Amino acid sequence: MSLSRSPSPQRGGGWSSPGLTAPYNSSGHGGRGGSAAGSGRTSPVPAFANGANVTWATAQARSAEVLRGGGRGDGSRTRGGGFLGGHWRRISIGLPQWRSGGGGIGAQHFAEKEKLGRGRWNIGGGGVSGGGGARGKVMQILAFFGRAIWRMRLRLAIVLGILLLVLGFYVTPLHRLYRRSSYLGGGSKYVIILGANQGGGVMEWKGPREWAIERDSVKNKKKYARKWGYELEIVDMSTKKRYAHEWRESWEKVDTIRNTMRKYPNAEWFWWLDLNTFIMEPSYSLQAHIFNNLGENTYRDINVYNPLNISHPLTEEYLDPETRSTVGDGDPSSINLIVPQDCGGFNLGSFFVRRSAWTDRLFDIWWDPVGYEQKHMQWEHKEQDALESMYRNQPWVRPHVAFAPQRRINSFPIGACSDNGPDPNIHYQEQDRDFVVNMAGCEWGRDCWGEMYHFRQLSNRLNRNPWEKFKDWISDGIQAARNRGKEDKKS
Amino acid sequence: MHFAFPPRKTSNPPPYAVRPSRSTPMLRRNQLRLLAIIALGLLSFIFIASRLFRSSSGSAQSEYIPPGTPPVVIVTVLDPKGNPSFNEMVKQNREHYAEKHGYTTFFPNPADYPLKTAPVSWAKVPAMRHAMTLFPHSTWYFFLDVHALIANPSISIEEHITAPARIEELEIVDVPVVPPDSVIKTYALKGDKVDLIICQDHEGIGRESFLIRRGEWAKYFLDAWFDPLYRAYNFQKAELHALEHIVQWHGTMLAKLVLVPQRIINSFHSDRAGVSEANIYQEGDFIINFTGCDQGGKTCETVMRQYAT
């Protein structure tokens, strides 16, 4: 309250101080001067108890104002700050007052008969009340935070709103819609093809274990596809007399993928999965795990891992430089087939193909009667061997094939490829949280259902949410304590 | 402290300019807010735009073809152990024609290719692939058997055969691709979608004269044709039967192939046995084929010399 000039004495007595001659100044003193003074407000006229500086003109103005406000009731110009303001003031007067920052007894303006700080909520604490000090501090801190929150209420409201939006996105199916749409999440560009019923059907009756394997495997893929908005195509691979000749029996993988490509004309990548696979980490999206960084996540030079000893690159001089290069043109966008290799060569238990003219050609030439006639006795893995043969002998294939490190999309359980003991490049590693397990070859003398069950439980355990982890921690603790008790009794 | 009048300006100005006060920020609050909103809007726009246009970025650009590239390469596999004067005559026939139209020629040696035990006639397949490696920007690659000559050098291949409209005019649609009675019939194709132009005679698909357009399909076609499983299969007519096999069994092969009338790219010399009258060479035809000319006591050179230019 700085003034442009010093107050000067007036003829009618008192001081003329332009900034301070507001009418309420005097009314405040008249009505409840004690409390006003107690709140520590400095007033230029503390000494005059009763309207000593009221001039005739100010008194007249005040009474006119009161009349106007009371008479019409709209009171838009009254000093309380509007129509509601009056009410607000009355309410706030009626509320109990917290005396803040009281500096001991000296600051009190009315006599306090009780002992301070007893039976009273005294925020200020004060020098006298020794016992309530700690609680007073806490209250002070709380009050400080309260004030801080109140001051930042707008920003906090924005943050809270954003939080609610994010929660709403993930709680409602909205996030699935987002992930699915081809131009945002891109989920519908990926199709998972699950070959169910392999070799079953006419040839073999399914027992309860086979049904259980199928149920678990299908459920696992359904959940995954739903989570990320992918398409899932479950195909029946049971042996049917579909062809006039029996040649193409159990060569249907290629035909199946072609049919699926026709069914989903807008999808780009197709992921073949055998039935005996389990997606261990549903939280990995295909995009993040492989396709966003295709060049880094795959290798095109087979010499990186070459169990078949295929000589690479090709050296025949009549071939063009791209075909003779170890990595094709080196651009990830030219990759059309991603195959993992296990200890025995290519593995088609889990592989990706992209829709392209190249893929059409490959699928067209994959099965050929001349090749079949010469090789069907040697090619016990049928499509797999045929693909290896094409990779070896037809140079146009190489520049568009990439290999995935096996554990990226096709980890093996310890029972498969185990001739040389556990191999960290082949076998599932729990601490690395591998994406997919393929129980390849479990039907030849291993326990498919046992492995499936084991990996299902492991996946569930690894992917518990924090609340489940907490509950398990508690129950494990109790269990451990009980066991300890039993052992104590025994000993 | 209050004074009746503001104090005088000091008589001793400070030696340096006064630092602007720190209490007023560079940007006012509402300006900041506006900036934040604009930045947020821009970021979200970029995000959505990048999502929308991510997939459509990989469109094929038209590739750069250096000036002076021959549009057509004529490929003839010569036998280096054959009669040198005969080889020279064949070479000159091609070179003379190529020079006239700005084409180029390529005479590979079959020994350069890994044929192993397969018949030498297989050499034409890697030879075509080789031509595409040596002349990587040309459009059409014309294979012509060593026993054939260009009889009418004034004919240009583009106008006579490979112009899309001309292909559509020439193509023979819906006939058995392998005569006489294959169930697989040829498709009607758009002229610019054709990658293989070939003709058909009484023995089968003509292996003595065909045109391939450069591209991924050509690599696929030639490599699949040259697969060792076919070479090892002992087809009666080696690469001819392998070719007939793949065009009948694989739709992606057939879908790029057109048959044209025999006399467009491969008229027969009248000495050849079993040829229908319609396919025999007439004055003005582009190519004359002398296959079988070394039978009946004659040498090919003497027969062909009359037509060589």
TrEMBL record, chain A:
<keyword id="KW-0472">Membrane</keyword>
<dbReference type="InterPro" id="IPR029044">
    <property type="entry name" value="Nucleotide-diphossugar_trans"/>
</dbReference>
<keyword id="KW-0808">Transferase</keyword>
<dbReference type="InterPro" id="IPR008630">
    <property type="entry name" value="Glyco_trans_34"/>
</dbReference>
<feature type="region of interest" description="Disordered">
    <location>
        <begin position="1"/>
        <end position="44"/>
    </location>
</feature>
<keyword id="KW-1133">Transmembrane helix</keyword>
<dbReference type="GO" id="GO:0016757">
    <property type="term" value="F:glycosyltransferase activity"/>
</dbReference>
<comment type="similarity">
    <text>Belongs to the glycosyltransferase 34 family.</text>
</comment>
<dbReference type="Pfam" id="PF05637">
    <property type="entry name" value="Glyco_transf_34"/>
</dbReference>
<dbReference type="GO" id="GO:0000139">
    <property type="term" value="C:Golgi membrane"/>
</dbReference>
<feature type="transmembrane region" description="Helical">
    <location>
        <begin position="154"/>
        <end position="172"/>
    </location>
</feature>
<dbReference type="GO" id="GO:0006487">
    <property type="term" value="P:protein N-linked glycosylation"/>
</dbReference>
<protein>
    <submittedName>
        <fullName>Galactosyl transferase GMA12/MNN10 family-domain-containing protein</fullName>
    </submittedName>
</protein>
<keyword id="KW-0812">Transmembrane</keyword>
<feature type="compositionally biased region" description="Gly residues">
    <location>
        <begin position="28"/>
        <end position="37"/>
    </location>
</feature>
<keyword id="KW-0328">Glycosyltransferase</keyword>
Automatic annotation (TrEMBL), chain B:
<protein>
    <submittedName>
        <fullName>Galactosyl transferase GMA12/MNN10 family-domain-containing protein</fullName>
    </submittedName>
</protein>
<keyword id="KW-0328">Glycosyltransferase</keyword>
<keyword id="KW-0812">Transmembrane</keyword>
<feature type="region of interest" description="Disordered">
    <location>
        <begin position="1"/>
        <end position="22"/>
    </location>
</feature>
<keyword id="KW-0472">Membrane</keyword>
<keyword id="KW-0808">Transferase</keyword>
<dbReference type="GO" id="GO:0000136">
    <property type="term" value="C:mannan polymerase complex"/>
</dbReference>
<dbReference type="GO" id="GO:0006487">
    <property type="term" value="P:protein N-linked glycosylation"/>
</dbReference>
<dbReference type="InterPro" id="IPR008630">
    <property type="entry name" value="Glyco_trans_34"/>
</dbReference>
<dbReference type="Pfam" id="PF05637">
    <property type="entry name" value="Glyco_transf_34"/>
</dbReference>
<keyword id="KW-1133">Transmembrane helix</keyword>
<feature type="transmembrane region" description="Helical">
    <location>
        <begin position="32"/>
        <end position="53"/>
    </location>
</feature>
<comment type="similarity">
    <text>Belongs to the glycosyltransferase 34 family.</text>
</comment>
<dbReference type="GO" id="GO:0000009">
    <property type="term" value="F:alpha-1,6-mannosyltransferase activity"/>
</dbReference>
<dbReference type="InterPro" id="IPR029044">
    <property type="entry name" value="Nucleotide-diphossugar_trans"/>
</dbReference>
